[in-house]
Amino acid sequence: MIGKILLAVTIFTAGCSYQQNTADIIKSSFDKAAIQYSKLFDELPDTLFPRSIYSDGSLWTNESGWWTSGFFPGSLWYLYEYGSDDRIKNLALQKTMVLDLEKYNYSDHDIGFKIFCSYGNALRLTTDSSFTPVIIDAAYTLMKRYKPDVGCFRSWDDISDSTEYLVIVDNMMNLELLFWAFKQTGDSVLFKSAVSHADKTMQNHYRRDGSCYHVLSYNQQNGGVKQKKTAQGYSDESSWTRGQAWGLYGFTMAYRETGLKRYLDHSQKIALFFLNHPRLPIDKIPYWDFDSPDIPDTYRDASAAAITASALIELAQYSNDSLKSFYLDNAEIIITVLSSPDYRTSIDENFNFLLKHGVGHLPANSEVDVPLSYADYYYLEAMSRLLKFLK
Ligand code: GLY
Predict the structure, then answer these.
(1) What are the sequence ranges of the domains in the chain?
(2) Closest to 367 (Cα-Cα) out of 137, 73, 68, 126
(3) Which parts of 144-260 fold into alpha helices (H)?
(4) How many CB atoms lie within 10 A of CB 148?
(5) 242: Cβ below 6 Å to ligand 1?
(6) How far apart are the first and last CA of the chain?
(7) What residues pair up with 217 in beta bridges, in sequence order?
(8) How many C-beta atoms surround the C-beta of residue 136 within 10 A?
(9) 190 within 8 A of 196, measured Cβ to Cβ
């Protein structure tokens, strides 16, 4: 269990100088991460990606089809953006190319994570247009999972019951691929489908207090809601923390891509639920589920913290001055705490993953209190975003 961390509080009493401290903390973390991720790359066979660490302490890798495969190349792209090191760029390119075959994989909704974190960042940072067709192909692959009668993309296929049409809040993240492809192609079907999915998610996944369910089961014929439940949370009615983070990030991105104010209002409501939650610890690193009955004697989830920090920094840009400060202050605390030795690894620790203490799927006793490649990705993204604010 992680002890209470007072570092952030100390930093936030230091007034103006803390901004410089935070910039220094971020730069030092990026410099160390470049060394660590080069070493982690060397551990990997050509076609595999780092996923986590097994309970016996060995490295857990995955092939390109697993939902997390885009995060390692994506992280390498963030490291390249920070340091402009061509050696890191070459590593990022190598792992990005392995994902080419995923552009036609329509077995789940995660193609957005896989292709946009890898190829999307490759295109953003190199402007090499040879990456464009892969991302467009991937967007049309994702479209195969859209059913107009439901108005949502199907997240998972339930192999035991083909009538189930399951949509998870995480799916909001994959809409970015569609919004991007709409801008490239002008095909309004991509845009309208993504907006429909976001609207239905806002309407059906969310509770009045700004929290959300994890999984919804829809009627395939008329789009009615059959069931609201969880897969990775504590209970059907609980607020699984990473789900809250995916929603915050997803609706903030949807506002950026559409300009629709209802998404901005909704993002701000989610942010308030998260940041004002009485069970959010003072260091702002949340427990894995806001409603776990074992709080405070249960696990924190560094991945949810990192995703939230990154989302808050973007949301700050669209918000009034007082909300902007509130979001940035919270994001800065999260990044500072994640960068402390309680969460941030040293060189050669944990196979050189960057963050400790993530929770993947606690009810299945899988990936509990471990490094996670997506925690690292959103941590790097959050630091990159905050650094631009502090400059
Ligand atoms: N999208 C899967 C997860 O957040 O664990």
Answers:
(1) 44-137
(2) 68
(3) 175-185, 188-204, 241-258
(4) 11
(5) yes
(6) 35
(7) 166, 227
(8) 19
(9) no
In tens, the pLDDT along 242-293 reads 999 999 999 999 999 999 999 999 999 999 999 999 999 999 999 999 999 9
Instruction: Report the distance separating Cα 330 and Cα 180, nearest Å.
Output: 29
Of these residues, 108, 110, 369, 376, which one is catalytic? 110
* CB 109 near ligand 1, within 6 Å: no
CA distance to 73, 189, 306, 376, 377, per residue, from 384 (Å): 16, 33, 12, 12, 11
Give kind and range of the element (H or E) at residue 114.
helix 111-115
* pTM: predicted TM-score of the whole model, two decimal places: 0.95
Ramachandran category for residue 238: left, alpha or beta (phi over 0 → left; psi -120 to 50 → alpha): beta
Q: In the block, which residue shows the tokens 């982690």?
A: 40
- Active-site annotation holds for 321: no
- Best probe residue, ligand 1, of 242, 249, 289 (max atoms within 8 Å of C-beta): 242
pLDDT at 6: 39
- Alpha-carbon distances of 187 from 102, 183, 192, 194, 350, rounded to whole Å: 22, 8, 9, 12, 45
| 382 exposure class (CB count in 10 Å sphere: 0-12, 13-18, 19+) | buried
Gap from CA of 170 to ligand 1 centroid (Å): 6
